[in-house]
Amino acid sequence: MNSDTRVAWVTGAGSGVGRACATALAEQGWTVALSGRRAPELAETAGLVRAAGGTPIEVPFDVAADDARDLVESIAAATGTDRLDAVILCAGSNTPRRSWSDQSMAEFAAVVQTNLLGVVRSTDAALPGLRSASGVLVVVSSIAGWRPSPGAGVAYSASKAALAPVVRTINDQEADSGVRATLLCPGDIDSDFLSQRPVVPGAAARSAMLAPSDVARSAMFAIDAPRHVRIDELVISPLSQRSF
Ligand SMILES: NC(=O)c1ccc[n+]([C@@H]2O[C@H](COP(=O)([O-])OP(=O)(O)OC[C@H]3O[C@@H](n4cnc5c(N)ncnc54)[C@H](OP(=O)(O)O)[C@@H]3O)[C@@H](O)[C@H]2O)c1
User: pLDDT tens across 75-120, in order?
Assistant: First the structure.
């Protein structure tokens, strides 16, 4: 790898926002480690990264179950450097059963495992690489973690709201090593994620939502900022967004 090449790790890279972020990084020539559970979807994103001018590394990874340190080691082995110039944590999940009347504790735990513990484990494993590069961490939360959104579900809202202190403590404690973290809180996005809603939106509703590329553009705004500038939090919604 050329010593000027920047290395990013994107979780949830097989679809939606993660795929759009990987493609946006590739357009700037980054080497992008792509992780997610579904290998065929990662391979498809890898093709898009290559076509956009980047270098993909496919590293299948379940944020709820696999060891994030092993994953980061495999990225270092593939790139020949331990630096991580950017890490974008997009992996997330929800369930259609979202209220106290129908949620199950097993599903609640699974959502927290992915949305909160998955982010914390990934962040913990990525920090040495981020320190080496004075890199940028982007944590994809949700507008449902930014303000109360009962429709998004108890587990989802609670797990996403818990990401604010994760990002804030990184920024308090890691500034001296040059690491900067951004909490990115999007409203409705037209992606596969909507299939997890109790009532799946139709084409008309989807057409008014954010596109994954809109969210990727916000992530790139944080990543492209000069090294002395930290974007602590970004909230991005479609014009049509209302409380739900
Ligand atoms: N769509 C929305 O309206 C919306 C709004 C606000 C925030 N968000 C957030 O945006 C992020 C990206 O979602 P999206 O809209 O782009 O939907 P998406 O296309 O469904 O993306 C979610 C990604 O997370 C990955 N993922 C889920 N569980 C995982 C696990 N245990 N380990 C590894 N990867 C896992 C999935 O890949 P695999 O299944 O291959 O693992 C998938 O690529 C999520 O964190 C979501 O909470 C979405």
Answer: 999 999 999 999 999 999 999 999 999 999 999 999 999 999 999 9
Residue 243, pLDDT > 80, answer no
CATH of segment(s) 7-236? 3.40.50.720
Distance (Å) from CA 101 to ligand 1 centroid: 25
Q: Nearest residue CA, atom 2 of ligand 1? A: 189
pLDDT at 161: 98
Domain ranges for the chain: 7-236
3-class secondary structure per residue, the chain: CCCCCCEEEEECCCCHHHHHHHHHHHHCCCEEEEECCCHHHHHHHHHHHHHHCCEEEECCCCCCCCCHHHHHHHHHHHHCCCCCCEEEECCCCCCCCCCCCCCCHHHHHHHHHHHHHHHHHHHHHHHHHHHHHCCEEEEECCHHHHCCCHHHCHHHHHHHHCHHHHHHHHHHHHHHHCCEEEEEEECCECCHHHHHCCCCCCHHHHHCCECHHHHHHHHHHHHHCCCCCCCCEEEECCCCCCCC
**Ligand 1 neighbour 153 (Cβ under 6 A):** no
What tens digit of pLDDT does each residue of 18-55 get?
A: 999 999 999 999 999 999 999 999 999 999 999 999 99
Query: Is 126 touching ligand 1 by the criterion CB < 6 Å?
Result: no
